[in-house]
Amino acid sequence: MEISDKIKKRFNGRIFDWQENSNRRAYFSVKKEDIFEVAGYMFKDLGLRFSTASCTDLREGLEILYHFSNDPKGEFYSIRVMIEDKKNPQIDSLAPIFPGAEWIEREIWEMLGVKFINHPNLKRLLLADDWPQGEYPLRKKEN
Amino acid sequence: MSHKIIVPIGPYHPLQEEPEFFQLYCEGEKVVDIDIIIGYNHRGIEQLSEGKHYDQVAFLVERICGICSSSHPYAFVLAVEDLFGGEQKVVPERALYIRTIVDELQRIHSHLLWLGLAGHFIGYNTVWMWAWKYREPVLDMFEMTTGNRNSYAMFKIGGVRRDLKEEDGPILKKMLDEFVPALDLFRGAVMDDPVIQARLKGVGILTRQQAIDWCVVGPTARASGINIDVRRDEPYGVYNRVDWNVVVEKEGDIFAKTVARILEMYESVRIIRQCLDKIPKGEIDAQLRDVPVGEGIGRVEAPRGECFHYIKSDGTNRPVRHKIRAPSFMNVASNKVGAVGGSISDATITLAAVDPCYCCTERVAVINKADNQKVMNGWDLIKLSQEKTERLKKELKA
Lengths: 143, 398
Prior knowledge:
The complex is a heterodimer. By secondary structure, chain A is α/β, with parallel strands linked by helices. Chain A has a domain at 4-87: Beta Polymerase, domain 2. Chain A has helices at residues 4-10, 35-45, 102-112; strands at 15-22, 25-30, 49-57, 62-70, 75-83, 90-92, 115-117. The longest helix of chain A is centred in the N-terminal third of the chain and has 11 residues, at 35-45. The N and C termini of chain A lie far apart (42 Å). Chain B folds into two domains: 45-325, Cytochrome-c3 Hydrogenase, chain B, CATH 1.10.645.10; 364-398. Chain B contains 17 helices and ten strands. In chain B, the strands form four sheets. In chain B, strands 1-2-3 form a three-stranded antiparallel sheet, with no helix packed on it. A three-stranded antiparallel sheet of chain B has the order 6-7-8. Chain B is globular. Classes of the chains: A alpha/beta, B alpha+beta. At the A-B interface, β3, β4, β5 and α3 of A face β6, β7, β8 and α13 of B.
């Protein structure tokens, strides 16, 4: 894929588990401390479009995938970030870079309890006002 | 003196399919800020999906939206087929053509529905009546191809559920031929009408940079000069085998969005005609079993923009995670810049989600500011108005 090399070169050593499922899909992992810089590079310098983010509750922690689309080439890049601390999950917000991330971060915050640092307006988006505090509907229950 | 007034719009009587609540902060006539409150229609479909097996999920996601009800199942089956190696590799040719026909019919019906409602809310009811009248035959075409006028239940992993009958092809073509003059009528009615131009041009502008920052998709982005369309950028179905154009407008106002949608309907008609000509004979279902372990992403250009589905599979018959992002999730958020700076009356069409009866159902009382005493009530105001009418009549006669 065309811009793979650019990303790998720019963040040499800080990107791991690069995986290409097809010639249109790439997944790679970064540490959660690096996400602000990597996402900023993808959006501002490479001019990719932020499509959305998805968060999954796994046994190892909360996994967030940030999906970026390279529209002229039809390629899709997903950045994987793992937040191990499930009790107090925190990560930098991307909304200061592009406001398009505001809503999806609010959704992840209320559904899975990830706190986005520096988010301009972290309040409920979809859940009702009387939904109990600290209950996250998309968290899986360990038994 | 600056004085902010909150004008609530919603959550009932919205124009679009979901209840949404907009709080407009106004200074005089001008909208200075907006608060968008959603969630009235949250049904927890992502969670429900994790408890159903893959074949059932296609039916579940069809019920996310009644208007683009083929986009969600299409994006979902694309996400699952991504795990199998991609739609183009596993799905039979004939099924690809049928999928494309259903997807494009849906675009026509959705754009007509929007056009009608937009006409209604700027007070142009003729457009409303026409649009909905000519949408009827499109629904008939759906009934012919899928068996349903809505919620088509056509998509399954690996193909489609229902074959197109041989004798239906010519009838569909004839119905399309009859539909094109109606489309010409709309193009004339909207693009040449000075009143509509005056009402929509320069209103609710979303600049190119704002569209990029808010990551908007679909006709909303294309009307702001951003040349994106999943159908061309990452072709699914048979979009790379038929001849069609992406409609891009530059202005970013409501008029550009309307024009983009009208011109897109012509392209849809072109695509369906070519599909009906080229459709090969053969199987319609690849009978895919046992979804492999991994992650899949499906993207479809719904009438409102890119519809995104993400599937994480652990090899069982149910998804571990199913993330759905509908196009409006990105587009509605951008109202924050589209509506701010305009007047309240423009906000109705900018948000395209207002019941115009709001202002007339509010009752008025004039209050003396010093002591908060009512000096006039509604009846007094009506009397004043009648007196004024009488006075004007006399002046006209004289």
